[in-house]
Amino acid sequence: RKSLLEVIKETVLSHLTKKCPPQVQVVGLLCRTPKKDSRYELLRRVAAGGGSFKGENGLKIHIPGANLNDIANQADDLLETMETRPVVPDRKLLARLVLIREEARDMMGGGILDERNDRGFSTLPQSEVNFLTKLVALKPGKVVLDMIRNVMLGKDEGADISGNDDDDRVSTGIAGRASVTGRKPHPVRPGMFLETVSKVLSGIYAGSDSGITAQHLEWVNSFSLYQFHKHFYFQNHVLPVH
C-alpha cells in the first residue's frame, strides 16, 4: 500500500510534468522505459504526433508529440549539466540519458551525418580524446572491452573527482584545453566520450576513406551503449507501448 504522502507526491509530480515542454515529458517517459524496442516504439509514436494508448494494465497512457531533434537535444543538455560536475549525482540517470540521446539521433533520417546532430562542442575534450586514442591503438578484445566497461561504470579514467582532488586537475571540459604537466585530466564522461566518438566518425565518413578505424569506432560505440543498457536498465517498471 502507498502512504498518503506518496500518493500526494506522485500526483503533484504528475501535474508538474504535464506542464513541462513535450520533449521534457518524453525524456521522462523514456527514462522509465527499460526495453529498447519499447523506447523506439515510443519515439516513433511521439514523432508521429503522440496520442493516447492503452498500457499493460489497461489504463490509457498519454504520449505527447515532440520533435526527435528536440528530444535528443534535451537529453544532451541534461547530460552536460551532470557531466560537468566533479561527481556524477546519478549514474543510472546518466546512462539512460545517453541511451535516449543516441536512440533519438539514430531515428533521425540522416544518421550520424545528419546536420541536426552538429551541435555540442566544436573542440574535442582532451580526456575523452586521450582515452579514445588508447582504445584505437589496441586490437579489439577483452582488454579493450574491460577498459570501456570500467569507464562507462565510472571507474579507472572515468572515476569521479573526490575531495580536494579537483584542485589538481586541469579543466578540459568543452573547450578541450590541453593537460598541464603534473596535473590530472578530468574524468572521462560517458556522454562526452560517445559524442567524441560520433564527431570522429562523422569526420571519417565525410571523407573518402573509412577503413578499419571507422569499423573499430563503430564497435566501441556499440559496446559502450550495450554496457549502459546491461548495467543500468532493469526489466521492471516498464512503460509498455502497444
From TrEMBL:
Q: How is this protein annotated for GO cellular component?
A: chloroplast nucleoid
Q: Which GO terms describe its biological process?
A: regulation of DNA-templated transcription
Q: Where is this region: Disordered?
A: 162-186
Q: Which InterPro entries match?
A: PRDA1
PANTHER family the record matches: PROTEIN PEP-RELATED DEVELOPMENT ARRESTED 1, CHLOROPLASTIC
Q: What is this protein called?
A: Uncharacterized protein
What is the species listed in this Swiss-Prot or TrEMBL entry? Trifolium pratense (Red clover)
